[in-house]
Amino acid sequence: MKDCSANNTMGLTRWWGQPALPDGVNMPYFIERFSDEENPFESPMTLICQINCADFKRTHPNNPTAELLPDKGAIAFFAYLDYFFGNLNADSPGIHLGAWEEHTYRVIYSPDLTDLRLHTIIDENEEECSLPAEAEEVPLTHHEESRMLEHPTIYYDEIEQEYPSYLTLVQLDESDRHHLRFYDCGCLFFLIKPDDLIALRFDRVKCVLYCM
Prior knowledge:
Layout: E1 14-15, E2 20-22, E3 29-32, E4 41-44, E5 46-52, H1 53-59, E6 74-79, E7 98-99, E8 105-110, E9 116-118, E10 134-135, H2 138-141, E11 147-148, H3 156-162, E12 167-173, E13 187-192, H4 194-198, E14 206-210
């Protein structure tokens, strides 16, 4: 298992941790204007995972989705998850069962990993609040369903019916370790069409939540 300690996460395939983005690429924020156009609510999105494309292709030679990845760079997956981490005041339009609205999530591809910089997320107590970075294998060792670039292990009938031509990039399951809950046995998915993955059109990714 690779070391995913705080000082060794910049370009690794990993779950959670501090976001690592190229210089000049802004940290994605959830922005909701509600009725106040002058002072919209803003909150940083959570980095769910990052996939190092070259490394993932090397370590998963028989994975058909991994074969479609570019030969370099990293893909980072973000979403506004505060409500599901227990902040019940964070619920907002656009975050619900089914397909989420585009302002609630973001997928960023960084082709060059030499100029990445970490973004530190600070809470109201001025303490760093990103979850500790974990290697790709960690969720499976804790009996969670979370996985990258694999066929879904749950809600696959719903995905096949509603998104028949899409591949699953990320499956994020509930986690007792991180107090993460998606209503009732829910699971969050990032989906993309094969042609869009090849073309690096991550702006066309769908983020979909299913639960019992």
